[in-house]
Amino acid sequence: MLELLIRGSVVYGSLLIFLRLSGKRELGQFSPIEFVSIMLISNAVQNSMNGGDNSLVGGIFLAFILIVLSTTVGYFTYRSKKFRRWVEGTPTLVIRHGHVVEASLRSERISHDELLTLLRKQGIRHLSEVELGIFESDGRLTIVTDEKPSTPPTNVRSPSE
What torsion, rounded to 10 degrees, do the Cα atoms 33, 35, 39, 41 define? Predict the structure, then answer.
């Protein structure tokens, strides 16, 4: 059981780090290629977690460990702003006053075509309609179409960061 605890914890932590490093795009919208990759990753790490233990008790215990780890990470992201930023990231300003913030697009690895697709899905036909476009920590794009001058929320990363 101790070996399952260690294996499950190491794999959980490693995947959390890998997914965080892969960026918001990977978490927000899966293309068919990315979905297949995630499915294959889950299969690839299965044996590293269970170490060959295919028993019912081992599987239930490993599932319990993963749920405890997930709950623990959730608790610490709730309690610690610093930990939350490390695990979830921060929102990124990608459009300001109808203009694309190129540095932000590059850092998020989003092409202009992908950005325009996301805008169209929200009923936006022209960049000029957008006051602020913020790529959220969960990979979704939030659009503000206010005609009044506005400033981005304080927790949004600027292109110079």
Answer: 70
Q: Are 150 and 130 in contact (CB under 8 A)?
A: no
30: Cβ contacts below 8 Å, ≥ 6 apart: 38
| Close Cβ partners of 101 (under 8 Å, ≥ 6 residues apart) | 93, 94, 95, 159
Question: 97 and 51 share a domain?
Answer: no
State how far the Cα of 76 lies from the Cα of 88, in Å rounded to an integer. Answer: 12
Name the 3-class secondary structure at 82.
helix
Q: Are residues 118 and 131 in the same domain?
A: yes
> Please, what is the angle between helix 2-22 and helix 32-50, to 10°?
160
Average pLDDT, rounded, for the chain: 80
Q: 55-96 pLDDT, tens per residue?
A: 777 777 887 888 888 888 889 989 999 998 888 888 999 999
According to DSSP, residue 127 is labeled G
Domain that holds residue 124: 92-144
* Chain segment 112-128, per-residue pLDDT in tens: 998 998 899 888 988 98
Count: domains in the chain = 2
